[in-house]
Amino acid sequence: xxxxxxxxxxxxxxxxxxxxxxxxxxxxxxxxxxxxxxxxxxxxxxxxxxxxxxxxxxxxxxxxxxxxxxxxxxxxxxxxxxxxxxxxxxxxxxxxxxxxxxxxxxxxxxxxxxxxxxxxxxxxxxxxxxxxxxxxxxxxxxxxxxxxxxxxxxxxxxxxxxxxx
Amino acid sequence: xxxxxxxxxxxxxxxxxxxxxxxxxxxxxxxxxxxxxxxxxxxxxxxxxxxxxxxxxxxxxxxxxxxxxxxxxxxxxxxxxxxxxxxxxxxxxxxxxxxxxxxxxxxxxxxxxxxxxxxxxxxxxxxxxxxxxxxxxxxxxxxxxxxxxxxxxxxxxxxxxxxxxxxxxxxxxxxxxxxxxxxxxxxxxxxxxxxxxxxxxxxxxxxxxxxxxxxxxxxxxxxxxxxxxxxxxxxxxxxxxxxxxxxxxxxxxxxxxxxxxxxxxxxxxxxxxxxxxxxxxxxxxxxxxxxxxxxxxxxxxxxxxxxxxxxxxxxxxxxxxxxxxxxxxxxxxxxxxxxxxxx
Lengths: 165, 343
Known about the structure:
A: alpha+beta; Alpha-Beta Plaits; 3-stranded antiparallel sheet; two-stranded antiparallel ribbon; 5 helices; about 20% helix; B: mainly alpha; 12 helices; 2 strands; globular; NADH-quinone oxidoreductase subunit I (chain A); quinone (chain A)
């Protein structure tokens, strides 16, 4: 019967000729192929020592930013925690005391700020939600660790290093 | 035999033993590194510079692993298996001529532990004993996969030993002796046996792959079908011994191939070199050449392993019985006819 699409092709299986049946020529050509790869440069990037360049909008570990005077920008408004789809962020707010003006920018600040890096999906919604430009995912890849509790990053790991006076 | 002779022999035995162990150890490293290069990878590179200490780390790991003997296994045979495997692998090197005789202070020191006049038969005997290690280990494990692997190993070794022996017979027609020392001497310069016995060499090579259970004939330890093959139940250094035995076997069969077909310690221009560097350095260079040939063969073993996929078991048997054996017999006949006509 005529095929409708006309794409049908009759294939024939040719019997192998002697050289093909002997198998040795095939082995030799296979050996040649692997030998070609033997001298190829490996594409491996030796990760902890070498790093591939990240793209500009790579989202890595979070950092809590400071302003131009070195005061923490975060006011513990909670919008980041609210926007977080993975519910990875928690915080406790505290009131700024007298004499702490150089530490915290506004009257309220985050006394405790924790991100659970095992929950975080690095979507970047927290940095979009932040009205104070206080949180950015501009860090490195989050390093591995042994215990779950060590993945809950507090302010000690998240806040930017203080400015050098 | 004087005491000095005994001491020399003893020293030679220890050196050869150590060399074969070290080479087996570093074959594991070489295998992983070469495999990596064939697959565009880097390979082990963390333990020491370029991963040089990796075999030591692996060995240490093997020794420290928990020793497990399955409840239903036969404990005695379970331990005998790997012991036998490593034992037979180690004693094969006794008849291999590692170099020409050295003359130090008027004393002739042969670089061969013992030149028995049936050297090849000795090697064959040892190799066929080697399969008992696998067979006993696989059987004593009381595990269907181990048993299947062991049976495969046994039938595969028996089938390929036949064509291996037949390919050797053609070589013996050419050399006229069974002694490995004499065979090596006859190939002085470039009169290598591979030039007279190319078909025999290819047959022997294929059979050597099968005898050492290397890919494409590594069906006894076929992971995709048999979990781990005959050493499925083995752990710790007993597993290490099996793996070690495989690499020593590879080293010994490379040495045998180099001796039988590729001139052993002979190389073109050896007389000129020997006349120029003296009676001690000359044989040592020959030994170095011999080891270079061995390493080339070991490299070839690994090269093939990372190129060719495994055979199916019936294909393996077809190849052994229907192709290699007739070919070996034809090789004997042709060799015999040519020798008769030339004489």
